TrEMBL record:
<dbReference type="GO" id="GO:0005829">
    <property type="term" value="C:cytosol"/>
</dbReference>
<dbReference type="InterPro" id="IPR000614">
    <property type="entry name" value="FRMsr_CS"/>
</dbReference>
<dbReference type="InterPro" id="IPR029016">
    <property type="entry name" value="GAF-like_dom_sf"/>
</dbReference>
<dbReference type="GO" id="GO:0033745">
    <property type="term" value="F:L-methionine-(R)-S-oxide reductase activity"/>
</dbReference>
<protein>
    <submittedName>
        <fullName>GAF domain-containing protein</fullName>
    </submittedName>
</protein>
<dbReference type="Pfam" id="PF13185">
    <property type="entry name" value="GAF_2"/>
</dbReference>
<feature type="domain" description="GAF">
    <location>
        <begin position="24"/>
        <end position="158"/>
    </location>
</feature>
<dbReference type="InterPro" id="IPR051330">
    <property type="entry name" value="Phosphatase_reg/MetRdx"/>
</dbReference>
<dbReference type="InterPro" id="IPR003018">
    <property type="entry name" value="GAF"/>
</dbReference>
<comment type="similarity">
    <text>Belongs to the free Met sulfoxide reductase family.</text>
</comment>
Length: 161
C-alpha cells in the first residue's frame, strides 16, 4: 500500500515545467526519472527502457542501482507492459511468472508502456523494496504521467542494434 498520497496532477505539472524549454528527449527523460524518484516515497529504482530494435527494450535514463540492459517484449514485467500495451501493477514481483530480478531488493513494481504513433517507444519502470507498495491510484496516476511523457519529441529516438 502507498506510503503517502501523491498528488499526480502536481507531478505532471512539474514534469511539464522541467521539460517545457528542452527539446532533447534523453535530457528530459533523465530529469523526469530524477523528479519521479524524488517525489515518490519508498522506491529504489525509477527509469525508462526504450525500444531500440523490434520487440526489444534497452536501458535508458534512470535513477537507482545498476540495471538489466536489454529486455525482450513479453519478458518480465517491463516486457509484458510493452507487449500488452497495458500498465502492469505487480504487488509482489516474486509471484510474477517470468519476473527478471535486476535488483533482488525490489519487491513490487509498476510499469507504464509509452506509445507514440501506435508504436511502443519504451516503458516507464518504477520499483519498490516493499511488497504492495503501489496502489491502483498510483498505477492510474503514473499512467496519466505516461500520457504526458508520450507527448515529448520521440523523433530523436533512433533504433539501434
Amino acid at each position: 500500500m502507498s506510503q503517502t498520497l501523491v498528488d499526480y496532477q502536481l507531478l505532471i505539472e512539474q514534469a511539464k515545467a522541467i521539460t517545457a524549454d528542452e527539446p532533447d528527449l534523453i535530457a528530459n527523460l533523465s530529469n523526469l526519472s530524477a523528479l519521479i524518484n524524488e517525489t515518490l516515497a519508498d522506491v529504489n529504482w525509477v527509469g525508462f527502457y526504450l525500444t531500440r530494435a523490434p520487440e526489444l527494450l534497452v536501458l535508458g535514463p534512470f535513477q537507482g542501482k545498476v540495471a538489466c540492459l536489454r529486455i525482450a517484449f513479453g519478458k518480465g514485467v517491463c516486457g509484458t507492459a510493452a507487449a500488452t500495451r497495458q500498465t502492469q501493477l505487480v504487488e509482489d514481483v516474486h509471484q510474477f511468472a517470468g519476473h527478471i530480478a535486476c535488483d533482488t531488493a525490489s519487491n513490487s513494481e509498476v510499469v507504464v508502456p509509452l506509445i507514440v504513433a501506435d508504436q511502443v517507444v519504451g516503458v516507464l519502470d518504477i520499483d519498490s523494496p516493499s511488497v504492495a507498495r503501489f496502489s491502483p491510484a498510483d498505477a492510474a496516476g503514473l499512467t496519466e504521467l505516461g500520457r504526458f511523457i508520450e507527448s515529448l519529441d520521440w523523433s530523436q529516438l533512433q533504433p539501434s542494434a
